[in-house]
Records
---
Amino acid sequence: MNASQLKDLHSTGPSIPFAEIIESSLHTWRAQCWDGEIIPAHGSILTATSGSRTIFGIVHASSIGSLDQQRTVYAYKKSEAQLKQDHPHIFEFLTSTFECLTLGYLEGTSMRYQLAPTPPKIHAFVSAPDQQSLKLFFAQDHYLHTLFSHENQIFALDDLILALIEQLARSNTLTQERLRRFMQTFSLLTANDYRRLKLFLQRAQPLLAAQE
């Protein structure tokens, strides 16, 4: 998978793995991309297959750094093109990792919006769900309950939700009815905090306008 393919994660074709889980717990999992220059966007919905379960998660943190702890990344005062020409070897030591918060899992044909009984397996492959799986997962808004239950552990939760809306809009999954229910659930989970809801809607307006 190259950088251009990763821009459209939620394709209509079969899922293509691009990363591998290196740390795992019931509620979060950390994965390393096979290509150090590729990393999924903030708010992307990804899946990890663990046995008979397909676990759905949202990217809430990511980082890029040196694969070799003994090699420090230095500033060369050169453009990326110049670096690839003069020092191509330095890119071989780059690694990109990201963390996903579990939102639910698919067991057979049943979608469950809760933590899986066991964490995803270490070395399980990570990929983006196809369009059909994505629509099945977002048929309900229960995943928002999981996000808000971890609000204290997520940096800038509203930013993450905005990024999620943008991902859904780009994948043509955000229908008007789904958006209406999404905002209703958001309002309930914020205890009808008018100020927060108003500010959130102002920031989301460009995305909402694109759906009209």
---
Amino acid sequence: MRPYEALEIGEKAASDPMTVDRDDMLDFAAKYDPQWFHADPDAARQSVFGEVVASGVYTAALWRKLDHTINGDVDFICGVAWEDVRWPKAVRAGDRLRATSEVVEKRPSGSDPSRGVVVYLYKLINQHGECVFSCRSINLVRRREAAPVSHSDADE
């Protein structure tokens, strides 16, 4: 597993693409986000989208699955916050999506020398190069070398 020290600001990664499956999208919507334009293909024809579209929660789940293929080797402890979460374009059945990530900030934890704070910019991009999901994610990552705690540093 890649520890905090192995991550570099500016480091970028991109996943292989995956195709959005209509049946999976509809099953997810029926269980977890049954708004009519996500779960009812007939009614969705009358929506501003003109067809059924993926829910934001499903889109985020697809991003997470793809992101694991490119960042599954990072020694994450956990995520602690998402900031500036956006769904600028609808996701439709048949779209081909790929996840991207960039390390935009990092610092040692101010309260626990065994971990560092790493901020990623995550995106999900469709086959047209359009962003369909993005967020800044604040994550705790294990450190290989524990540094002394500075009590003046604030921790996330």
